[in-house]
Each structure stands twice: as C-alpha cells, then as structure tokens.
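Quick note —
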Amino acid sequence: MILKTERLILRPIMISDANDIFEYSKDPDVGPNAGWKPHENIKETINIMEDIFVGQDEIFGIVLKNTGKMIGSIGFMKDPKRLNTKARMLGYSLSKKYWRHGFMTEAAKEILKFGFENLNIEIISAYCYPHNTRSKKVLNKCGFEYEGKLRKCEILYNGETFDNECYSILESGFKNNKKTVI
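Predicted structure written out below.
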C-alpha cells in the first residue's frame, strides 16, 4: 500500500532505505525521544529494519515527494497496553532536519485515515514521554485526547525509567478533526 499527501509519500520500508534511516537514527536527539538508542552503525540499522519494519503492512517510510528521500517512519503496532484486538498503537520518528515543518502531522493524519477507513481499527493510541513536547503537539493537532499518565512504566535502553503520557483517538474524533489545518 502506498499513501500520498500533499508533500509526502508513505510507502513500505525496504532494505535499500537503510542509508536514509541510519542517517536520522544515529542522531542522539531522535531515538531517545521514542525510547530507543541512537544507532551506532549501518549494520545495526539493517538488523532493526529487518526485525521491525521490512514486510510490515502497517508501517511506512515517510518520503519527501520532491526529492525521494526517506525522512522518517510511521505506523501501527499492536498496543501492548490494550487487549482490544481492534486497537493499534501509533508510532513514529522523524529526522531532526525536518522537525517543525508539519511533516509528521501531515503523515499522521494520513495514517489515521488509513487505519480507520482500511484496517477497521476502533481506537488508536499513542504514548510519549512527558518531556517530548513536539510529539504531544502532533497528537493534539491530529485530534488525540489525553487519557492520563502511566507512571514509571517504561525502562529505556540506558536504564532510565520514564512515565508515559497516554493519548487515544476514536474514529468519531478523527472525523470531527479532519478539517484541522496542518
């Protein structure tokens, strides 16, 4: 499945995308905001791609239409905090070079549409650390509702323990938010 927005192409991730993914995944400001350590080398990136991204129907690379460069990833996973089989968790990452341009909000809105219209998802959740204000802004712009804080729930790769800010959106909330400007 390939999805398109005004400025982006959301498409399956392939091993040939490894250099673009490594480029942003090695940045110490990218991974830790999502709970993963910066990648140390291209081999590590390829191993992670094979384990998590490649061959997944609900995970997409975020590609700039005008250059063909992959600048991030976005997609759904089973929500480990919900037993509902029609629930999915939204996850995403974006190269720091492309922060503050509305790309993630644009990609997230398209993925939400895909999830509700094509995958028969009932609820989409998203979790972020309390310090990740950029992610909270994306979720708010997409119509997610704040559910609360799950305290001391996640131990990171470096041993630190963080709270999760919990958000979710139902299809009705998404439909009511569609007219929001990016």
